[in-house]
Amino acid sequence: MTGEKKSIRLSKCSVGTEEQDAVLRVFNNQYFGMGKEVQALEQEIKSYLKTEMEVICVNTGTAALHLAVHCLDLKAGDEVLVPSITYVASFQAVSATGAKPVACDILTDSVFIDLADAEKRVTEKTKAIMPVHYASDGSDIEKVYAFAKKYNLRVIEDAAQALGCVRDGVQVGNKGDILCFSMDGIKNITSGEGGIVVTGDKVLAQRIKDARLLGVEKDTERRFSGERSWHFDVHHQGFRYHMSDIMAAIGRAQLAKLPQFAKRRKEIAAQYLSELNSIDQIKFLKLDYANIVPHIFVIRVINGQRNALFDYLQEQGVSVGFHYNPNHRLTLYKTEYQLKNADLISEQIITLPMHVDLTNEDISYVTGKVAQFFRN
Ligand SMILES: *Cc1c(COP(=O)(O)O)cnc(C)c1O
What we know:
- This protein is α/β, with parallel strands linked by helices.
- The longest helix has about 30 residues, at about 245-275.
- The model has no long low-confidence stretch (mean pLDDT about 95).
- It has helices spanning about 15-30, 35-50, 60-70, 90-95, 115-120, 140-150, 200-210, 220-225, 245-275, 305-315, 340-345, 360-375, and strands at about 55-60, 80-85, 100-105, 125-130, 155-160, 165, 170, 180, 195-200, 280-285, 295-300, 350.
- The strands form three sheets. The protein has a seven-stranded mixed beta sheet, with helices on both faces.
- Helix content is about 40%, strand content about 15%.
- The chain is built from twelve helices and twelve strands.
- It starts with 16 loop residues before the first helix and ends with a helix.
- α1 (about 15-30) runs antiparallel to α9 (about 245-275), α2 (about 35-50) runs parallel beside α9 (about 245-275) and α9 (about 245-275) packs across α12 (about 360-375).
- Pyridoxal-5'-phosphate binds near residues 132 and 184.
């Protein structure tokens, strides 16, 4: 390795001429709204997931989560169990509906929701649980479904980071109650910004399709057949959350690349695991690295030097991140109670660069700097 200082981004999308051509196709069509491209993307995602469930594309992952919770018709004050360590989007999606996100603790090994803690927070107002596929891993999801069955809860999987992952030999999104994915600018694939709701509940799916278009009933079906809705009825509150054809065109080009992106992300994780393995001061999360497509690569610094490592790596040109501050400590979502594991983990975690354009040399540069930090 040369002594030359590199500049390594934490995350980025990877786009090229395929996406450019796709945008140009829509550009030349002179229609940027929701039409044939969105319809095609939904079909292609459905095929990719090999699912019988309905696939509904919207303009962000947060909108996907919001629509999922909104269309369950929870009442003000109803409660949804959410792990404290997640992007604030999970919490906002719940509170936007008037329901209350109830912060739960996480397991320190995987940062997945701690169901023993969640159990303590169940009340007669609890209507749903929103497990998060943290760092793309949802290995314990079957336990969440058993828990939900016991307490009669709906399950909204925040699978924002999990597109492309496989569990028990099937794609994440192939089955489940409701799953929400994100295609924002840095996720496993991007459509510029974008989100996906997948559900097998036909009634809910229709509500969500209408709700993305201001509640205009059957507007999706008319737009997909090239028509407009002039005379319509509205029964429910809706939003302006539909995806545009220009976004869908980018998403389609990206979806075609997902298998190769998935392979590269797994390789990068494997290189991190092997090159950092001998450093005693860090610990890896216990995730199903062989089957997930990691959106982020998170390590735990267990000797109290997380902040110092963070600053050192930034100085060395390695952009690092922090996923996430516990939501139960944010002003809006502050809890009376403590969440021990969430508090502990939030002092330990640091996110290393992860995107498909990183070279093996880039990764070795990062791992070399981490090793050097602990040697000093
Ligand atoms: C990215 C993300 C979201 C929100 O998705 P957007 O498309 O950015 O709105 C929600 N939850 C988690 C865990 C995420 O990583």
